[in-house]
């Protein structure tokens, strides 16, 4: 990386962070340096491959470090990154190989084997010297979920964003981030994020929960004025179509209690209406909130009383 003079304070901070996170570890280890961005689909597809290879080669002194090009623009410019993902191997503070063309596990391992034969890289521990931060991640996820439940969407998004940097393939983190985007009305961003989840992860309960939230909110708009719908339902309580539309709008706004009340009203009046659309929507809402949530347990008892009472 070329030396720069007259740096701004932000650029100095980027350089200091890069020195700590990348340059210092590279003095003894071989660092796989991955330039990525949150919006980059190919980056997210490559991440699991890089993480697996780095884990497999941890005992050989290989570690993975990531640079977000949106947050560390100066560093990306120093490396003349024109497109992402861009991947380099670094040793003793200098790039020693461009790994950009190695996209498969086999190609990456072959490239690393060749590099390791030529450099005095110190072997590392089986975990590459990287501490197990699963407990810390779980704590942050719980915090973010609580903040999301309290309705502070901006703060929840900030927490999930930080944890996503630490654990980009953790399904609980991906799910929480996507559901926060949905709660903020950023439907397209959430849809894009979930669309990039690898096929073998799509059946994970956390991803299914986020997808259910996306499916639910697709039936209503968070910025929709529900006043006319409320008036319509008030004028004709048996207008199930209007009541279902109102429930969908309330779900989009995060008002699950009011939405559930309207769905229960339809089920009590005619549980088979529109092929059981109200019951199906209610069960989808349960899935989004979380089947272990106390609120869901309470509402399920309420549903059972209607269906079997």
Identify the notable features of this structure and list them briefly.
309 residues; alpha+beta; 4-stranded mixed beta sheet; 58% helix; 8% strand
List the helices and strands and how they pair.
Layout lengths: L8 H15 L6 E7 L4 H16 L5 E7 L4 H6 L7 E6 L2 E5 L6 H14 L15 H16 L3 H14 L4 H13 L3 H9 L9 H13 L9 H9 L4 H13 L3 H14 L7 H13 L4 H15 L1
Helix pairs in contact: 5-6, 5-7, 6-7, 7-8, 7-9, 8-9, 9-13, 10-11, 11-12, 12-13, 12-14
Question: Can you walk me through this structure?
Answer:
The chain is of the alpha+beta class. The chain has 14 helices and four strands. The chain has helices at residues 9-23, 41-56, 73-78, 105-118, 134-149, 153-166, 171-183, 187-195, 205-217, 227-235, 240-252, 256-269, 277-289, 294-308; strands spanning 30-36, 62-68, 86-91, 94-98. It has a four-stranded mixed beta sheet with strand order 2-1-3-4, with helices on both faces. The protein starts with 8 loop residues before the first helix and ends with a helix. The model is unreliable at 126-130 (pLDDT under 50).
Can you summarize this structure?
This protein is α+β, with helices and mostly antiparallel strands and 309 residues long.
């Amino acid at each position: 990386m070329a030396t720069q003079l007259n740096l701004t304070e932000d650029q100095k901070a980027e350089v200091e962070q890069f020195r700590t996170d990348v340059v210092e570890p590279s003095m003894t280890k071989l660092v796989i340096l991955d330039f990525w961005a949150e919006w980059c689909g190919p980056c997210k597809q490559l991440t699991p491959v890089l993480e697996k290879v780095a884990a497999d080669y941890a005992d050989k002194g290989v570690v993975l470090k990531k640079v977000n090009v949106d947050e560390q623009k100066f560093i990306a410019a120093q490396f003349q990154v024109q497109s992402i993902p861009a991947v380099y191997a670094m040793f003793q503070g200098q790039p020693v190989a461009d790994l950009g063309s190695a996209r498969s596990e086999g190609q990456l391992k072959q490239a690393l084997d060749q590099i390791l034969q030529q450099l005095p890289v110190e072997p590392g521990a089986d975990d590459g010297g990287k501490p197990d931060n699963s407990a810390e991640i779980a704590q942050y996820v719980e915090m973010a979920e609580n903040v999301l439940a309290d309705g502070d969407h901006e703060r929840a998004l900030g927490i999930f964003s930080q944890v996503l940097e630490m654990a980009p393939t953790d399904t609980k983190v991906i799910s929480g981030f996507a559901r926060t985007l949905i709660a903020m009305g950023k439907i397209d961003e959430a849809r894009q994020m979930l669309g990039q989840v690898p096929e073998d992860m799509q059946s994970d309960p956390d991803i299914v929960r986020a997808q259910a939230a996306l499916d639910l909110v697709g039936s209503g708009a968070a910025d929709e004025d529900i006043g006319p719908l409320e008036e319509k339902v008030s004028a004709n309580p048996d207008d199930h179509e209007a009541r279902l539309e109102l429930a969908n709008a309330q779900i989009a706004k995060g008002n699950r209690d009011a939405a559930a009340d309207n769905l229960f009203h339809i089920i009590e009046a005619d549980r088979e209406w529109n092929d059981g659309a109200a019951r199906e929507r209610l069960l989808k809402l349960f899935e989004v909130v979380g089947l272990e949530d106390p609120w869901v347990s309470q509402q399920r008892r309420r549903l059972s009383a209607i269906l079997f009472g």
